[in-house]
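Appendix B, Record 12. Input sequence as logged:
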Amino acid sequence: MLAVRGLTKTFSGPKPRTVFTDLALDLAAGEYIAVMGESGSGKSTLLNLIAGLDTPDSGSIVLDGVDLATLDDDALTLVRRRHLGFVFQAFHVLPYLTVAQNVALPLSLLEVGEGESARRVAATLADVGLGERGASMPRELSGGELQRVAIARALVHAPRIVLADEPTGNLDAQGAEQVLRLLRAQVKVHDAAGILVTHSRVAAQTADRVLLLDASGLRELPR
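Logged structural output:
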């Protein structure tokens, strides 16, 4: 599903800073991994590179057999729309749209027909336990429910890879546990590949593998 080889990223400036060097990563369909690391270690940078939002200094990122470096901006945008799902610490749920309308946004960008879109939205909201909340406004939901909306939005278009950047950072312990279990279950059900970026060891333990990111790249941590 995803093959990363020799990835190096340095941020330029008066004092250039190399984030990581010669990073390698393989990720299979249905696999859910956690990436940990100190603040500033490059966890979010890694997600941005995989999403084609940033460019590495060297190395390759191959998604489903396609090297992202061979794509222009328009093609990269299509890859993100069709094949990637994003879940962030800040829910990024639009306050002036209903829950269902928020979840439908990726399908709208892909120009999916109204009937098919409604069917997918209803099914995905049911999967995340919000089947009765489609007409609700975001202000009527709890933080945990808003993150469920974000998960539904990330999965509604059946992405190949789900990228989750500190998705429980704004939740209490109980809400975080529920969201983490749900995220893992939904990645598995959709046979997607999932990458969870987190500073929490408790959160990381929900993944199939836990990897530590530092300047030398990624290394697997014992369970």
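Strands lie at 2-11, 17-27, 32-36, 58-63, 66-67, 84-88, 161-165, 193-197, 209-214, 217-220.
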